[in-house]
Write a sequence for this structure.
């Protein structure tokens, strides 16, 4: 609060037309519990004359649109010879005017200022998890920036450190539970507040998960889709193990948790996979798997009169139309909606096949977009025998299209399209699946 030695001598306290009024008896109750403050460091500095700190009178007045409050003097203090002053117990939601005065000099005013709250620590509990990286800045509020947080007392969990106002740890490993730590927050004016913050170290339950669902059945002499077992919670490192009997040809890598291979022998098998953490906690999962051979029926349309399905509504050109009735005439077509859609056939069991034949609507030699012909054992993982994004594009003809491939097991056959060069609809005439004799 600088007092200008060049100013004209002041003869009153009018503050440019605003007359200060002393606080009336009982009004102090309005400020009970208030924690805001104004000081020589905020907002106008210490009291000085020509740049030299001096003792002066500092008055703090309420600034309000309420005439009952406006202009009330809530405090009058003397600054120290060093020019430092401070007024506590102010309401942080109110605005104030500050008047600095010294006999023989004009008043200096800082108008419409807000008091600061003392620096405080917001956090009460910080949750940290064993085995999971931690990075948490202690939350603060109030005070004059910048705020500095320091650790005063207490012991942090093993694996967690405090530096630069942050709790951090790449791999907390301490004993679970609460760790009370006393911190101090100090603001730019030197005000400080202590608060105890509990660092709660939590050990999550040990859990076992798989990259995909383990199927109940496998086809013999056919590579399985690899399955990776993973652990979470507890505290690593983790150790995997198996008990029971894996189907011959399947391998479990205890180091990577991966199940791979090609089952070679039909039969029923039961086994479990267990994971154990460094604290010797363990959890496991039990599996029953049936290994079977795919049926082999040669030179027979395995899709004939089998159930069909689609992700769109299915409608038929005539009451006798069906995409699995053996009729390849254009009057036999079946619609399966618009936009990208699929139409599938359930062969009813797992068969070895090596040929798919398909007819889509062909009378105008239209080309269907984003066309794919596929088969699947489980209806989840699909193998494409034709994909127009990588294979030569063709238009539909009365001869249909034949796709021959290496013998493989399948239960489902489907076609995917996304409209055609003629319209936005999808139309199939016939879908067939075969295993030809070697």
């Amino acid at each position: 609060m600088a007092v200008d030695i060049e100013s004209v001598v002041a003869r009153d306290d009018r503050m440019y037309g605003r007359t200060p009024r002393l606080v009336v008896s009982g009004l102090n109750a309005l400020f009970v519990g208030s924690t805001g403050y104004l000081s020589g460091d905020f907002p106008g500095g210490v009291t000085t004359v020509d740049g030299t700190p001096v003792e002066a009178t500092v008055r703090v007045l309420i600034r309000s649109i309420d005439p009952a409050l406006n202009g009330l003097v809530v405090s009058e203090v003397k600054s120290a010879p060093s020019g430092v002053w401070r007024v506590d117990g102010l309401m942080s939601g109110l605005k104030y005017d500050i008047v600095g005065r010294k006999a023989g000099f004009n008043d200096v005013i800082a108008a419409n200022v807000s008091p600061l709250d003392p620096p405080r620590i917001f956090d009460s509990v910080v949750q940290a998890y064993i085995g999971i990286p931690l990075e948490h800045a202690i939350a603060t509020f109030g005070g004059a920036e910048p705020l500095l947080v320091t650790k005063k007392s207490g012991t942090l969990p093993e694996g967690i450190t405090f530096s630069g106002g942050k709790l951090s740890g790449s791999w907390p490993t301490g004993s679970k539970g609460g760790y009370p730590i006393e911190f101090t927050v100090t603001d730019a004016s030197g005000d400080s507040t202590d608060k105890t913050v509990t660092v709660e170290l939590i050990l999550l339950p040990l859990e076992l998960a798989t990259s995909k669902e383990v199927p109940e059945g496998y086809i013999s002499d056919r590579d399985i889709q690899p399955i990776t077992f993973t652990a979470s919670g507890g505290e690593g490192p983790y150790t995997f193990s198996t008990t029971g009997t894996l189907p011959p040809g399947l391998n479990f890598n205890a180091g990577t948790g991966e199940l791979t291979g090609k089952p070679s022998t039909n039969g029923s098998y039961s086994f479990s996979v267990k994971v154990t953490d460094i604290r010797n906690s363990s959890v496991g999962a039990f599996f029953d798997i049936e290994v079977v051979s795919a049926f082999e029926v040669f030179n027979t349309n395995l899709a004939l009169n089998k159930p069909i399905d689609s992700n769109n509504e299915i409608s038929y050109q005539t009451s006798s139309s069906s995409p699995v009735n053996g009729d390849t005439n254009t009057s036999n077509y079946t619609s399966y909606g618009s936009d990208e859609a699929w139409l599938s056939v359930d062969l009813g069991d797992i068969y070895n096949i090596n040929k798919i034949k398909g007819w889509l609507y062909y009378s105008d030699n239209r080309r269907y977009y984003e066309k794919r012909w596929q088969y699947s054992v489980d209806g989840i993982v699909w193998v494409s025998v034709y994909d127009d994004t990588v294979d030569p594009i063709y238009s539909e003809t009365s001869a249909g299209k034949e796709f021959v491939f290496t013998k493989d097991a399948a239960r489902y056959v489907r076609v995917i399209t996304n409209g055609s060069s003629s319209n936005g609809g999808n139309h199939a005439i016939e879908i067939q699946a075969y295993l030809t004799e070697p």
User: Anything to note?
Assistant: DSSP finds no helices and 35 strands in the chain. The mean pLDDT is 89. The two ends are 102 Å apart (CA to CA). The chain has four domains: 2-113, 120-202, 207-292, 308-434.
